[in-house]
Amino acid sequence: xxxxxxxxxxxxxxxxxxxxxxxxxxxxxxxxxxxxxxxxxxxxxxxxxxxxxxxxxxxxxxxxxxxxxxxxxxxxxxxxxxxxxxxxxxxxxxxxxxxxxxxxxxxxxxxxxxxxxxxxxxxxxxxxxxxxxxxxxxxxxxxxxxxxxxxxxxxxxxxxxxxxxxxxxxxxxxxxxxxxxxxxxxxxxxxxxxxxxxxxxxxxxxxxxxxxxxxxxxxxxxxxxxxxxxxxxxxxxxxxxxxxxxxxxxxxxxxxxxxxxxxxxxxxxxxxxxxxxxxxxxxxxxxxxxxxxxxxxxxxxxxxxxxxxxxxxxxxxxxxxxxxxxxxxxxxxxxxxxxxxxxxx
Length: 345
Known about the structure:
Blueprint: E1 14-16, E2 27-28, E3 39-48, H1 50-59, H2 64-78, E4 90-99, E5 112-115, E6 124-133, E7 138-147, E8 153-155, H3 162-169, H4 173-181, E9 187-191, H5 196-209, E10 214-219, H6 222-230, E11 236-239, H7 245-255, E12 261-266, H8 274-279, E13 281-289, H9 296-305, E14 311-314, H10 322-332, H11 334-344
Parallel strand pairs: 9-10, 9-12, 10-11, 12-13, 13-14
Antiparallel strand pairs: 1-2, 3-4, 3-7, 4-5, 5-8, 6-7
């Protein structure tokens, strides 16, 4: 069989506009005949990223059939699942169906894998949506997808259910980056701390800051905060609406005795939380925007507007070793493993 030669980054799949990479592209080629360096995946489940699913669900007014229609329409129109309102995607799990002869990697046909690159750049074809699980942002499908040579992946662990592993791997960049930016003795605020990535970030931050540091878990919902409290992943727990910058500032000022935070980690899945993050951070501190609902313009101009000299880090979903680091949190803490198994498996 003759295979066409593929580019490492998948640019051969870009239909429009020409000259861009698959992620920013509007439309990509989702024909499922693989190039010489691609992998064909039989897709089982999509894990839509939280900001994206929240927006789709809002537009569908919670109607499951309407959610299915929106997802199908996105994929049929663009060749991938790139949410037109948030620009984000998610990730998938599936089984390796075929491997191009020039693909470099340790994959074999039949391996069960999770893609660790965004659905917003992954060629995808959905034949049928079998089930939508809105409470965990997951969608079971019958379909196929393509992994490029540059595409990151993880072979699914055998010591936990695949849906559980998928839900954790989808946000693996957040706790891994948290480990890099939090130092012993730091005061860390995690906004959206009661969610999936929030709990992982709180746990990782607590490990990094040690006994002389402090982790403050902030969430807009008491129910979410109770989940975080049940696994004891922070030192303080606050219910604050992250879109209310002044309330956030006042609460963090009080709980830190006027010091504010060395590091603020934002994993909130709704827009307009930039200023709350910035005001909660001390001058010279770090704001880590992991949320895909973040606006660079609002963050940059907002910090300037209030005279805040803070470092701002964009949440790259990839950092070396992030997949193993995130799964290791569950292996090290039975409480989180049990909670996540109840929620996601």
